Amino acid sequence: MSKVALITGAGRGIGKQIALTLSKEGYNIVLNFRTLSDDIKKLKKEIESNNVEVLLAEGDVSNFDDCKRFVDDAIAKFGKIDVLVNNAGITKDMLIARMKEEDFIHVLDVNLVGTFNVTKNVVTYMMKAREGRIINISSVVGISGNAGQANYSASKAGIIGFTKSLAKELSSRNILVNAIAPGFIESDMTNVLKDELKEEITKNIPLKRVGKPEDVANVVKFLVSSDSSYITGQVINVDGGMLM
Ligand code: NAP
After folding, report:
1. What is the Cα Rg of the chain in Å?
2. What is the pTM of this model?
3. CA of 189 to the centre of ligand 1 (A)
């Protein structure tokens, strides 16, 4: 029976690449996104061309009821979820002096509470199955902090604490929980930055290039494979050596 992976925020960027990479490994994909579009329908077809099934799971991860609905739909269709990748995330950057309360709360709601909302619903089934892999997408700034990203960094640091706690709680059920901390990866999230800033950041990356979504997706592929069955509670930086 094919394995099943649920990926949040999988319509574009890193999440899309994770969905494509896992489908090439034979995973049926539960593809979460916020709003159905032609791009999402095209992506569904592209994934299906790898001879796997796709369930479109519309919903906002910051809404607990949405998450419960699409997790239940996934169980109704596939009977199980073997892998959960909590990838959905947003930024609302601003220095603290000018950061609005709603922008602090919104980023925490999507990035951290969203990770809880999906995990809480999925874990019920993984515990019954007595196996599972959960990969949470954090960020290097969750470890180092970053001026102008107090909200985002706090959410990503929170994801690391959440990951380690769940790794301890769920180890007896053979559920492995790890986090990936990407550095600077090409996507819509980073495309908004000015070219000069991107050049400055690249200069400080030992490998002298920004990352690609594939760089993150390949580590997810490893973390869901049997090759990583003795790894849990870890944060793996995928950052070209940016943070060490
Ligand atoms: P992106 O291109 O902006 O994609 C973000 C994805 O998250 C989109 O698919 C978006 O859906 C989805 N999303 C946002 N809010 C959501 C919500 N409430 N419910 C469901 N889905 C939601 O960003 P990315 O670079 O691929 O980032 C993916 C993850 O990697 C994020 O957690 C990000 O923090 C993390 N990360 C990225 C970098 C980087 O350099 N790019 C570095 C470190 C960590 P819509 O299309 O509906 O907006």
Report:
1. 17
2. 0.98
3. 7
